[in-house]
Amino acid sequence: MRRRGIRIVVNAPVVLGFVGICVAVTILNFVTGGRSGQLLFMTYHSSLLSPLTWLRAFTHVFGHSGWAHLIGNMSYLLLLGPMLEEKYGSRTLITAIAITAFATSLVNYILFPSVALCGASGVVFAFILMSSFTGFKEGEIPLTFILVTVFFIGQQIVEGLTLDDDISNMAHIVGGIVGGVLGYLLNVKTGRRFSS
Fold first, then answer.
1. Number of independent structural domains in the chain
2. How far apart are CA 70 and CA 119, in angstroms?
3. Are the C-beta atoms of residues 133 and 187 closer than 8 Å to each other?
């Protein structure tokens, strides 16, 4: 009788790749004294004629202000991402990340011209709201979606109005909206029905 060994599998390539890039960018930012982050991985009000402005509109989600910021976001991504990648597929998850990155960058550019934005928090909130649709049935709105929206987005609105910190509550709110809309549209589009 031959024993079967345990092997490690790459179960969510997009999520693992995203996390790997974020770790590499954080290390690079540390090594360059923050210069690489400001040049490539932080979105802020700059000329729309500059190609870097458009690049940063997407790459800012890879940059983080430090290790605590990185670890917090990566923990959520590693928890929620594999389930979403399994359900929707790798291409859809890449699209969701790109839409969230651009949407948070655009809102930040328009509404907060003096604020620089970096980090995957918007993506995290998109994943949180998308995950609340995993048991979706057509013609229904999951109670979990309503509760997640109230707790997470409501908290961000309250904190955005009452706290003066370096956390972009706007990115959380925009990411949550993107995730909620995508979660709904993806499930209506697939027409999947789940039975117990």
1. 1
2. 8
3. yes
Residue 56: inside a domain, yes or no?
yes
Could you give the 3-state DSSP secondary structure of residue 12? coil
pLDDT of 1: 57
CATH number at residue 89: 1.20.1540.10
Residue 67 lies in a domain: yes
136: left (phi over 0), alpha (psi -120 to 50) or beta: beta
- Name the residue range of residue 74's domain: 13-190
| pTM to 2 decimal places | 0.83
- Is 90 exceeded by the pLDDT of residue 96? yes
Assigned domain for 195 exists? no
d(CA 117, CA 105): 8
* Residue 8 lies inside a defined structural domain of this protein: no
pLDDT tens track for 15-29: 999 999 999 999 999
C-alpha 42/C-alpha 65 separation (Å) is 10
Distance of alpha carbon 153 from alpha carbon 131, whole angstroms: 15
Contacts of residue 125, defined as CB under 8 A and 6 or more positions apart, other chains included, come to: 152, 153, 156, 171, 172, 173, 175, 176, 179
